Amino acid sequence: MRVLLLMPTNTYHAADFVSAAERLDVAVTVGTNGSQALQALTPGSTLTLDFSDLDGATQAIEEFHRTFPIGAVVAAEDETTALAAAVGTALALPHNPLDAVLPTRSKLSLRQTLSEAGLPSPAFRVLDLGEGFADAARPERDQRIRSATGGFDDRGRFSFPRVLKPTFLAASRGVIRADDDIEFRAATRRIGEILHAEKRAGGGNAESHLILVEEYIPGPEYAVEAMLRDGALRLLALFDKPDPMEGPYFEETIYVTPSRADESSQRAIVETVERAVGALGLREGPLHAEMRVNASGVFLVDIAARSIGGLCPRVLRFGTGVSLEELILLHAMGEEVDDVRREGNAAGVMMIPIPTAGVLRGVGGLNEAKRVEGVREITFTINQGQPVVPLPEGNRYLGFIFAHAATPEEAEAALRSAHARLRLEIEPA
Question: Taking the model in full, what pTM does it have?
Answer without folding.
Answer: 0.94
